[in-house]
Structures are given as C-alpha cells and as structure tokens.
C-alpha cells in the first residue's frame, strides 16, 4: 500500500489491483476488507462507492454479503460491476439474456449457489449498476465473460430490494481487457458515482 489521502480531498480514488491477475474473487474481497478497515481506522470516511472489475466484481459482492453491516467499516453506498464474474464464466445456451435477467441462470456453479443462499445479507440501500461489454453480440459475451454471467446476480439484487440497473456498453473497445479504459463505461461510472 502506497500513498496518502489529502485531508482536503473529499472524494479520493483508491485503486486496488493484483500484481498478477487472478479470477479468485476471495483475494479481491480480502483486499477490499483491508482497505475499508484501514480507511475506517485512519480516515473519517462517511461512505465509499466501489467498482469491481471482472473477478473483482465477485469480490465486492462477497464483501457486501460478509461485511456490509459491519459498522466499524465505512458503508458502501454504490457498487458498479464492470464485466463482473459471478457464475464461473458459465454461458447459458438454453436461456436468453432476458430469461437470465428475470429468473437467474439455469446452470448454477458453486459460486452462484453461494449468492443464491446469501443475497439477502446485502444492504438493501446499496445502489448497483451492472455493466458488460457488448463485444460479441452473437455469442453474448465480452470475449471472456458471458453476459449471462455478468448479469446473473441482477434478479437477486431486485428480489433483495436493491436499486439495480444493467447496461450493455456498445461500440469500440468493448472486449473484456479493454473495458477498464472504455470511455463510455468510464463516463457512466463517473456520472453514477458523483451524481
């Protein structure tokens, strides 16, 4: 961990990443827990908005389930999932995206089973946006994560009473590895976080 937060900066941006990429959401959850704990102890942070990219989306969702009601930590107000992974990159060949959004995935991995059993532990006040890159519309994927995976938690969020929306980012630079620098996605995140 490097750097400090200027006391005059009311909206600091803190970037968390792995030295080597991983699709293990548990590592992202642990990192987020360490950061939120540090912010809670050393800074007067009223709340945080969090973006989770790829497996980091699963890490944030896991954090919300495990630590969302811990009042020693700054509360999370808004969560953006950018090409998030929630069902082990499992496509749903016998379901349309509309069906997944309405009913959740038919093919469920152990990861999704965890969300299904614990989704009610997420604070209902957290606003959530799920963004996916529309890289390959025929295969319904960003080239790595199927849309059915990235949007699979949408019905759980709605059932839980969260304010949740989902969007496909169309145009150029929508492949999974390009989404963190996609200008449409960045613009949407800024607007959502700072409105």
From TrEMBL:
Keywords of this entry: Hydrolase
Keyword Iron attached: no
One MF term in the entry's GO annotations: hydrolase activity
Ranges in coiled-coil conformation: none
Keyword Nucleus: no
InterPro entries tied to this protein: AB_hydrolase_fold, DUF915_hydro-like
Alphabetical list of Pfam families matching this protein: DUF915
Protein name: Alpha/beta hydrolase
Organism, scientific name: Lactococcus lactis subsp. cremoris (Streptococcus cremoris)
């Amino acid at each position: 961990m490097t750097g400090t937060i200027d006391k005059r900066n009311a909206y600091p941006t803190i970037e968390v990443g792995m030295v080597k990429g991983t699709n293990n959401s548990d590592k992202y959850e642990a990192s987020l827990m360490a950061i939120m704990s540090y912010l809670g102890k050393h800074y007067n942070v009223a709340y945080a908005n969090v973006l989770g990219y790829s497996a980091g989306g699963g890490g944030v969702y896991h954090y919300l389930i495990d630590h969302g009601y811990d009042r020693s930590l700054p509360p999370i107000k808004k969560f953006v999932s950018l090409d998030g992974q929630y069902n082990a990159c499992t496509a749903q060949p016998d379901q349309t995206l509309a069906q997944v959004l309405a009913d959740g995935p038919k093919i469920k991995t152990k990861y999704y089973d965890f969300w299904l059993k614990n989704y009610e532990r997420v604070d209902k006040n957290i606003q959530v946006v799920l963004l996916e890159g529309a890289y390959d519309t025929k295969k319904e994927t960003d080239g790595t994560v199927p849309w059915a995976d990235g949007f699979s938690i949408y019905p759980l969020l709605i059932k839980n009473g969260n304010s949740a929306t989902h969007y496909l980012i169309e145009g150029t630079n929508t492949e999974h590895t390009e989404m963190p620098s996609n200008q449409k996605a960045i613009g949407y995140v800024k607007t959502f976080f700072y409105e």
